[in-house]
Amino acid sequence: MGTRKKASTMRQRRGVSPVIPTVILVAIAIIVAIAVSYWMGGTTSQFTHFEQLEVQSADCSLCEGNWTITLKLKNTGTREAILTSLFVNVEEVDKYGQADSGYIFTNEWATNMTQHEVVQNGETICVLVYIDPNRVGSTLSSTTMINVKIHTASGTDYLKMLELP
Question: Is residue 87 classed exposed, middle or buried when 0-12, 13-18 and 19+ CB atoms within 10 A define those classes?
């Protein structure tokens, strides 16, 4: 009778079904997978935005002894581009946001581009550059190839080669 009592006591004590821990583990795995996908979605969207300027046209003309360069730029990227500086060959222009077609700067190079000019994605702007050929230290003359470089806040340089008329 002693063994019989042990057997009935053993039957009354039942363990946790193996289904319950399996369900709990699957639920935890699903929660972790959802959390990781939300996190990766936010992270990848930050890294997939990019800046891309396209020089749609570039023209150089000679007017009253000075060169005028006209660059038509379009931001074809997915985020704004912030133009911070403009260079002719390796020399930075002297005056930002002060060039217009009615005024010629003497002994300076100028642009209508302001420092930190913001170009939204899809937007097109026109950048004018006025070059005084008599600027101190300048070795530019007609039929010379020049390199116009626009530098952005992201550290990207956009170059365009032009021949002076």
Answer: middle
* Tokens coding 58: 């570039």
- In angstroms, rounded to a whole number, what is the distance separating the alpha carbons of residues 159 and 146? 10
- Distance from C-alpha of 62 to C-alpha of 44, rounded to nearest angstrom: 48
If one counts every other C-beta atom within 10 angstroms of the C-beta of residue 135, the result is 18
Mean pLDDT, rounded, for 135-160: 89
pLDDT number for residue 72: 96
Where are any strands of DSSP class E within the chain?
Answer: 53-63, 66-75, 81-88, 91-92, 95-96, 110-111, 117-119, 124-131, 145-152, 157-163
Q: Which fold has domain 53-163?
A: Immunoglobulin-like (2.60.40)
Whether 131 has a pLDDT exceeding 70, the answer reads yes
Q: Provide the 8-state DSSP code for 18.
A: T
Residues 6+ apart with CB under 8 A from 109: 88, 91, 93, 94, 95, 129, 130, 131, 132, 135
